[in-house]
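Justification of computing resources. Each target in the renewal requires a structure prediction run like the one illustrated here; the chain below, 76 residues long, is used simply to show the kind of job we budget for.
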Amino acid sequence: TNWGSPAIRMYLNYVDESDKSFFRYINPDTQEMITSYDKKGWTARLFNITRDPPFWHCVYAETSRISIGFRIKEMK
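Resulting structure tokens:
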């Protein structure tokens, strides 16, 4: 969850094959689990890490996946 380090986060990732890796999260407003599959090439995702409620998320890959993360702004 990274709840101990709240911030807006941006992640760039690259994969060689479409639909063999994903970013999954629980929408804090609806509690719905969302799965966002990576497409071949570069993908960018922007999301907000909060302490309350914590932002649950994970990644999965069954292919080579490069991920670069940026902490854009600390939330107060």
